Amino acid sequence: MGSLFHKFQEALKVFAKSPTFAKDGRRLQFEADINRLFLYTSHYRLGKDADEADAEEIIEMASEASVAEQQKQVQENIHLQISNFCKHMDGILVPDSKADDVTVSTPSRTNVAPRPSGLGLAVGRTTPSKVAPGLFVSKTKPITKFELSARLKEVTGYTLEVKPSQIQHKDAGNGLFLDGEVDAGSVVGFYPGVTYSPAYYQYIPGYPRVDLHNPYLITRYDGIVIDAQPWGYGGESLELWDGSSDQKQVPNSGGQETGSDRVWKMLSRPLDGVLKGDILERRNPLALAHFANHPAKGMTSNVMVSPYDFPLNKKDLRAYIPNISFGNDEVNMSKFGRFWFKSWKSNRIEMDVPMLKCLVLVATRGISNEEILLNYRLSNLGRRPSWYVSVDEDEDRRRWS
């Protein structure tokens, strides 16, 4: 398997220099990333019994298939892995009998004091978020998140844990670690939280300075922003999650709110929007991708992000996808330069199945009991943090061009 992976690595070097990629910098980087993900996830799908002929066929496909075809295959490869993960989770959590299934209704929640959410804090909301009545909740085994994580490792060979980072920088804090072993192309973790399409950027807490007190925001190439701050470390049950968070907003300095903080809090209050809650497994051991650190100088990343569009008709898998969407996903947006505009005519073929836009981490090499490191690719158009050391300045520039 190691020699086959070497072939893929050599192929990546060749494809990266291919003149067939788009000339636009941002598009070029997107196509290069899809090409890499196609090779990595296809390599994983080949399995340990693959031979050299199989590898050659995949490399040939990568050189001939269009970006759209490769993107479709990446989606299929990742969905297959996630489906298997969900089956393992069911095997651990679902009781032999489902006789204890219950239904959650809106009236039953009105007697419970709501937890503050990032959105609620931003708009000063004190009333409970509205939820759809009659949501069906399956009974799960009463095991802790820690126990679930250990059980998952037994059946898959790995799990994730958060502990102090090995990066020698005062701002490194906690890092994400893989406990166990995975092969290149494996889906390592989910980036959890609330997803915002460009039509709803103004609803992101703290808008327009959304990243001032929130380091857990990430953006897909299609403009979808995922805010993982409300998710935090997850929870201890299968529950209705509507983006609520127990985290408190931290004042700018000295434990006191400054005049500047008050001004920006007033200016950043988003308009009242629609946040869709859903029944999610908050104990999900892999919903921790937002704790992955950027590699320090001399280190290299071992994962990359991949877009994943979860088909919402797969209701038996839904609880294990740690994301909810804000607003109406069907609003079409078009990008002009650096700005997004509402498009009154559909710019895509309407899909029969609604999709939840997500991100996952994919291993770019074999990983064994080590810290997960993700190249953040921060924009070089503005001031970057002191701890940030660019892995590839050209990639950084193309990503945000």
What is the succession of H and E elements?
Answer: HHHHEHHEHEEEEEEEHEEEEEEEH
The portion of residues forming beta strands comes to: 15-25%
Structural class: alpha+beta
Oligomer: single chain
Outline of the structure:
The chain has 9 helices and 16 strands.
Describe what you observe in this structure.
It is a single chain. This protein is an alpha+beta fold and 401 residues long. Helices cover 29% and strands 19% of the residues. The protein has nine helices and 16 strands. It has helices at residues 2-16, 25-46, 52-64, 67-93, 106-109, 118-123, 145-156, 259-267, 393-399, and strands at residues 102-104, 135-137, 158-164, 174-182, 187-190, 193-196, 217-219, 225-227, 238-241, 278-281, 303-311, 323-325, 333-336, 339-342, 355-363, 367-368. The protein has a four-stranded mixed beta sheet with strand order 7-8-6-12, with no helix packed on it. A hairpin with a 5-residue loop joins strand 7 (217-219) and strand 8. Helix 1 (2-16) runs antiparallel to helix 2 (25-46), helix 2 (25-46) runs antiparallel to helix 3 and helix 2 packs across helix 4 (67-93). The chain starts with a helix and ends with a helix.
